[in-house]
Amino acid sequence: MPNRWLPVLGGILMNLALGSLYAWSTFVLPLEKEFGWTRSETSWVYTIAVICFALSFLFAGRLQDLKGPKICALIGGVLVSTGFLLASLTTSLVTLYIFFGVIVGVGNGFGYSTPMPVASKWFPDKRGLVVGLMVGGYGGGSAIFGSLAERWLIPDVGWRTTFQILGAVFFFMTMAGTLLLKNPPAGYRPPNWQPPSGAAAARLEYSTAEMLATPTFYALWVAYCLGTTAGQMTISQLSPFARSAGIVAPLAIFSISALGNASGRIFSGWMSDTLGRLTTLKTMVLLSAVAMPALFIWRQQEVLFFILLASVYWCYGTQLSVFASTTADFFGTRNLGMNYGVLFTAWGVAGIIGPAIAARVFVRFGTYRYAFFAAAGLAVVAFASLSLAKPPAREARS
């Protein structure tokens, strides 16, 4: 019997390195200080990375379905590491947009396309939990590397050397993850687990075209997009927002946010195995609608700041885990790489909306107030969209 936990370890290693994208805000202030760039200009780095992440995920997902996870993981690891190394050579916004925004973003798309399909195939009996464990590494990466960069590396060796050190570390981590990631053998099933049989099993496997023909896909897409806007907005501006609120504790900020992010992915994934995917998603989206304005209102109360920050990240992390498991449950695992890649474009659009709201509101009003309330309103719309979704196996198919 193959050890199905080794691919999980590989996925966690891969995502720990890829999660460095969420630590981008640690570089915002040093770069603005050195080059005199504005917040709107630096916010585009994260936005470009998210767009490239989501678009490349489409191609990577299809490649993963056809060729397996190793080739995508290898490409992703090399690109992310190279992007960080090249970012240390930044001399202009254009080079930063290309090195970090494009190269690191595309690397994330290829690397992130692999763990979820692998986990879903090895663990159909514990899909929510194990997908959550794998993608939980992505949230944990921001705590480890964001704290390391902001508290020690950037103050001691500068942002250029920090990019170089992280790039080297990520190369070894992603290569180790690549070696461990693999699909189960044909016909594999976990001990004491029986798959659906007959017509029920056939109806669970959707091609991408068939998935796009279901109303459920569009309800999920809208909910995913608007529900993750709050998290994307906070992630892109976390360090500057915390400083503007008088919270200057980088280790605590990144540790608490990453703990919330990772915990949401893991524990909400586990919860969704018991309570159901849609119930878990709707609960967390509603919580996000409350937590976002509350985070701004009580931003200067340190204890409440960290509790609410963890809550916002928990709700965000939940969606990155449970939407992936929902895609596998609703549309099958045969084409999961491509199918989830198409749904994941919603997260890419959120990566445009969220940082743009935060940056433009801050530039115009000198405060993030209206951005946080707008994100809460979008979360309410996401809840309504989730309420329209239903398992597509119950829908008529041609």
Would you give an account of this structure?
The chain is mostly helical and 398 residues long. The protein has a single domain (5-184, 204-392), classed as Growth Hormone, Chain: A, CATH 1.20.1250.20. 80% of the residues lie in helices and 0% in strands.
Q: What would CATH call the homologous superfamily?
A: MFS general substrate transporter like domains
Oligomeric state, counting identical vs distinct chains: single chain
What gyration radius follows from the Cα positions, in whole Å? Answer: 20 Å
* Share of helical residues: over 70%
**N- to C-terminal separation?**
39 Å
Which residue ranges are poorly predicted, with pLDDT under 50 across at least 5 consecutive positions? Answer: 394-398
**Hey, roughly how much beta strand do the residues contain?**
under 5%
Task: Tell me which CATH architecture applies here.
Answer: Up-down Bundle
Number of domains: 1
Query: How much is the average pLDDT?
Result: 88
Order of helical and strand elements: HHHHHHHHHHHHHHH
Task: Write a compact overview of the structure shown.
With 398 residues, the protein is mostly helical.
Give a topology summary:
Layout: H1 5-18, H2 28-35, H3 39-67, H4 69-87, H5 93-112, H6 115-122, H7 127-180, H8 198-203, H9 208-212, H10 215-244, H11 250-275, H12 277-297, H13 302-331, H14 336-365, H15 369-388
Helix pairs in contact: 1-6, 1-7, 3-4, 3-5, 3-14, 4-5, 4-7, 6-7, 7-11, 7-13, 10-13, 10-14, 10-15, 11-12, 11-13, 12-13, 12-15, 13-14, 14-15
